[in-house]
Amino acid sequence: MNCIYTPSSKLLTLEITEEIDHHTAEKIRRRADYEIQRHMPRKTIFDFNSVTFMDSAGIGMIIGRYKMAANFGGTLEIVNVKPSIKRILEMSGIFKLVEIKENIVNEKFV
Amino acid sequence: MKNLYENEMRLEFLSKSNNEAFARITVAAFASQLDPTIEQLADIKTAVSEAVTNCIIHAYEEKEGIIKIVCKLFADSIVIEISDTGRGIENIEEAKKPLYTSKPNLERSGMGFTIMESFMDEMNVESVLGLGTKVTMKKIITKE
To answer: CB–CB of A23 and B107 under 8 A?
Structure first.
């Protein structure tokens, strides 16, 4: 996972570079929580551009990070989600909590 | 004499979470003999990942055990059996309910069985307390 924090806009971008399952979710969770607690961002963005697989472990992981971000007064957004993963997100009803945007290029450099 | 099914493979591995990717990729590789679409392969991988994760977290509760997968290819479908000899499920109907999880502290979403049911064409769960659980799933793959 690549992390980029932009202090001027208080934006934390977490680019996930692995498949998300129960095994990898734990590692992503630890790193994301560390970065959110450290920076207390206004907005946290999960960039899913390189994520080719996600199962239900990803749903729990995202809801957990949504709560963590909200604890520090921030919001959570997911960008560049592939169709097969979008289906799982839709089934979970996660759209009510987390904004999902498509085709965001270089958001991390904003 | 014609076999009921055209091909079969069996897989046994330890209930370690780093085998989740191995299991779904192996089943998908075997299923690719039926020439499925990319979407169908993604569905199979997701369903296998859910079932294997259930074995690791719930059946063996993160202790070591053996997970068995049997895959049978038919002319128009694949049948995948994923079984363990773990603790078994007390109430299968409850476990299958969307958002139900017996382990909310692990950030589990309770969507596992719901995903297996909706991504596959058939799903059946058999379980005996103290003896184990077997999930059987079928995906129809018809040639265009």
So the answer is: no
Catalytic residue among B20, B64, B81, B108: B108
Q: Answer yes or no: B50 catalytic.
A: yes
Instruction: List, for residues A21-72, the tens digit of each pLDDT value.
Output: 999 999 999 999 999 999 999 999 999 999 999 999 999 999 999 999 999 9
B49-94, pLDDT tens digit by residue?
A: 999 999 999 999 989 999 999 999 999 999 999 999 999 999 999 9
- Second CATH level (architecture) for the domain B7-140: 2-Layer Sandwich (3.30)
DSSP collapsed to 3 states, A38-97: HHCCCEEEEECCCCCCECHHHHHHHHHHHHHHHHCCCEEEEECCCHHHHHHHHHHCHHHC
Please answer whether residues B136 and B47 qualify as being in contact, where contact means their C-beta atoms are separated by less than 8 angstroms.
Answer: no
Here the CATH number for the domain that contains residue A51 is 3.30.750.24
Chain B residues whose CB is inside 8 A of the A22 CB are: 17, 20, 53, 56-57
Domain of A30, in residue numbers: 2-109
Would the CB atoms of B109 and A53 count as touching at under 8 Å? no
In the residue annotation, B8 being an active-site residue is answered as: no
